[in-house]
Write a structure and sequence with these properties.
With about 400 residues, the chain is α+β, with helices and mostly antiparallel strands. It is about 45% helix and about 10% strand.
């Protein structure tokens, strides 16, 4: 049981002053406690981790398993399909099946296609002239197109892919009945898509999973195949789109960027500083000491990555965005066995998209104050998603 004074323990998530800053309550002074109790708005308590070392421990140690509170998993009659994929040994089996499709070689093979897609989208934006909503006209369609290439979804199905994903992520975790209904409505579309891929084949994630299902039916059932594909889709495009948007917000304010190349170092600093995908949930399987805090079996633990990536013990001037930052051991992609499988792909996507955007429109800037931009907190990803980004040039 999480310990704490019911009167003084704060509610999570915390409120913040503006879209670019983490909540003041997340700030940790040097020597401050990296682990503290919080009350959950949905009920109950959890331990909040804001220190880098503590975060690495939680994300690495097998005494903490994945936790996705409230997720409706009645996708089929064969039990808890989604949660099956979250921890070993099933997690290891499925990760191995698709890891080759996210290898460095595969990412390099995709880079020319990324350039082609970005160029085409930017051509359309240039023809339409300013102002333009970069989320709607660039970040989202670019991310969805790359996800489609990786998964093996035909371009004609991209609008359906986005529509189904949007419908699922809009359902609050607490609404288990509606989330279950959403999964069930998605099932016929996935079944049709997988049947189509069985006929056509390919060198992509869906084809790899289908072959594994057909060759090793005892390890991966058809229902599990459907569920696994479903949970790959939302983070595969929505987080990338939001980080591209955060990159524009941050880099547009940099003096003298102009036609300069968007470097990998800039991308790493964007990943550290942006606020999307900011929470990671775990559950302790046994009693463990976490930086001097006694965490009992069954306790929930929340790793606040937005705070971890601003830990003053590791980062110099952590509250500032610095395009020339040299030491940047951020945890934006997680850590340990659940380190983001698509991290290499996402890094190249971000660099290609932002580099081409700023070279095409070197004078690009926000069309309205940052306070007027539209951000949306996501139950699925834990923090702010950029839903609208009007720019001029």
């Amino acid at each position: 049981m999480v310990e704490g004074d019911a009167e003084t323990t704060p509610f999570w998530p915390f409120s913040r002053l503006n879209a670019l800053e983490v909540a003041p309550a997340l700030a940790r002074a040097p020597g401050g406690d990296p682990v503290r109790p919080v009350r959950l708005a949905s009920g109950g308590h959890a331990w909040l981790v804001t220190g880098h070392d503590a975060a690495q421990f939680v994300l690495t140690d097998p005494q903490f398993r994945m936790g996705v509170p409230g997720l409706g998993t009645d996708f089929a009659t064969s039990g808890d399909l989604v949660h099956r994929f979250l921890d070993p040994p099933d997690h290891n089996f499925l990760r191995k099946l698709v890891s080759a499709r996210f290898s460095r070689q595969r990412v390099l093979e995709l880079e020319p296609r990324m350039t082609e897609i970005a160029s085409s989208l930017l051509d359309v934006i240039a023809e339409g002239g300013p102002p333009a909503d970069l989320v709607e006209r660039f970040a989202l369609p670019f991310s969805i197109a790359i996800l489609g290439e990786v998964l093996g979804v035909p371009p004609t199905r991209f609008p359906e892919l986005k529509a189904w994903s949007d419908a699922l992520i809009s359902i609050p975790f607490a609404d288990t009945a509606e989330r279950t209904s959403g999964w069930r409505r998605l099932r016929p579309w996935l079944t049709e898509l997988i049947a189509e891929k069985r006929r056509t084949g390919g060198v992509d994630v869906l084809s790899s999973l289908i072959r594994a299902r057909d060759e090793h039916s005892e390890s991966l059932t058809e229902e599990e195949l459907l569920a696994f594909v479903a949970i790959l889709i939302p983070p595969g495009y929505l987080l990338t789109s939001t980080v591209i948007s955060w990159g524009v917000i941050l880099l547009a304010g940099e003096e003298g960027l102009g036609h300069a190349e968007v470097t990998q170092g800039m991308v790493e600093e964007i990943l550290r500083f942006q606020l999307a995908g900011g929470d990671v949930a775990r559950v302790a399987t046994e009693e463990v000491a976490l930086c001097g805090t006694r965490v009992r079996a069954g306790d929930k633990v929340i790793v606040a990555l937005s705070a971890v990536n601003r830990d003053s013990r590791l980062f110099t001037d952590p509250a500032s965005f610095k395009v020339d930052r040299k030491q940047n051991a951020h945890l934006a992609f997680g850590h340990g066995i659940h380190y983001c499988l698509g991290a290499g792909l996402a890094r190249v996507e971000l660099q290609v998209a932002l580099d081409m955007l700023f070279k095409r429109f070197p004078g690009i800037r926000l069309a309205e104050p940052i306070e007027e931009l539209t951000f949306e907190r996501s139950d699925l990803f834990g923090d702010e998603l950029v839903t609208r980004l009007p720019v001029v040039w």
